[in-house]
Amino acid sequence: MLIAGRRSQREQTSTDENATTASSSRYKLLAGAALFLLYSCASATSDAQARLDTFYDASAAVVQSGFPEHRKAAMVETIFSSLFKELGGAIPDEDLVPLFQATTSALFYTVDKKKLPLLDAIFRRMATLRTAKTVDYENMLQAYIALRDFQGANAFLARYHKGPEDRRIIPIDSLPAATKHRTEWQVGEAPRLIRRPVNIPNGTFLIVLASPFCHFASDAVRAMENDPALRPLLKNRIKLLAIQDLSFDYDAFTTWNRSHPSLPYALIHSRREWPEVASAILPTFAFYRDGKLVQEFSRWPEKGNMTQIYRGFGLADPTVAMESKR
Question: Strand 193-197 and strand 172-173: pairing?
Answer without folding.
Answer: parallel
